[in-house]
Design a protein that fits this description.
This protein has 205 residues and is α/β, with parallel strands linked by helices. It has a single domain, classed as 3-Layer(aba) Sandwich (Rossmann fold). The protein is 48% helix and 15% strand. The chain is built from seven helices and six strands. Strands 3-2-1-4-5-6 form a six-stranded parallel beta sheet, with helices on both faces.
Length: 205
């Protein structure tokens, strides 16, 4: 039997980068995948087929994790389609890098909403089905810069540090209900998002 046989996972931002890699590994282990994407429907459909080739059920949802109501609707739709949610991987994230003296309020807000508010939105939404099942696993993608900081990434670093504190609090709240909450803090990984970073920022990772 595979490690995640017949489990159901929601993975945000899974159409590329780290999220795509997670979805493929989960599918390889027998997990049914509900993933979110923002733009290309064609790419999402192609990824559905790629995941389904592992013999699992896969469906993409065009949904903005930073939108509270959209996150609620996503979880409701996934439960209606798949029956439950066993695992949530909060992976969606963006960068808007610049020095603090040049950073606009919009650049700050965009990163905090996409990276941190999205984690609150989805975690709050999956509580209901997980509490009903009395089990679940929530995995939040933080970053090493959430621990050590990085020049030119005050917004990104703050959002990733916030994820660590949020994750620990949720673990304390839901652990007694058999719902795990953990964070992963990767170092630099080559993806489409990090490929756009300034070389000086990359060297500081």
């Amino acid at each position: 039997m595979k490690l995640l046989e017949n489990k159901v996972a929601i993975i945000t931002g899974a159409s590329r980068g780290i999220g795509k890699g997670i979805a493929l590994k989960f599918a390889e282990q027998g997990c049914n995948i509900a993933f979110t994407y923002l733009s290309s429907v064609e790419k999402a459909k192609a990824f559905e087929a790629e995941l389904a080739a592992y013999g699992i059920k896969a469906k993409g949802y065009q949904s903005d994790a930073a939108d509270f109501k959209a996150a609620e609707q996503l979880v409701n739709d996934v439960v209606a389609e798949f029956g439950t949610v066993d695992v949530l991987v909060n992976n969606a994230g963006i960068t808007r890098d610049t020095l603090l003296m040049r950073m606009s309020e919009q650049q700050w807000d965009e990163v905090m909403n996409a990276n941190l508010k999205s984690v609150f939105n989805l975690t709050k939404a999956v509580q209901k089905p997980m509490l009903k099942a009395r089990k679940g696993s929530i995995i939040n993608m933080s970053s090493v810069v959430g621990v050590k900081g990085n020049a030119g990434q005050a917004n990104y670093s703050a959002s990733k540090a916030g994820i660590i504190g949020f994750t620990k609090s949720v673990a304390l709240e839901l652990g007694s209900r058999n719902i795990r909450s953990n964070a992963i803090a990767p170092g630099f990984i080559e993806t489409e998002m990090t490929g756009a970073l300034d070389e000086k920022v990359v060297q500081q990772w």
